[in-house]
Amino acid sequence: MIPFLVVPCVAGAVTAPATRTAMLREHFMLERLRLFFIILLGETVLTAGRAMPAAPADARSTN
Question: How far, in Å, CA of 45 to CA of 52, rounded?
């Protein structure tokens, strides 16, 4: 019976829910940033694809 009374006094047992919540928030933000990056990459590819037909085919560099 005594070990059950000692468990709530352990520092990790008291802060576990708060730590778990913080980890969930970090995971959520990481997933949102990943999705944002994928959308940004897709928009970049689409913009480059739309710009290529508008460029002249015989354009020479001015070096």
Answer: 11
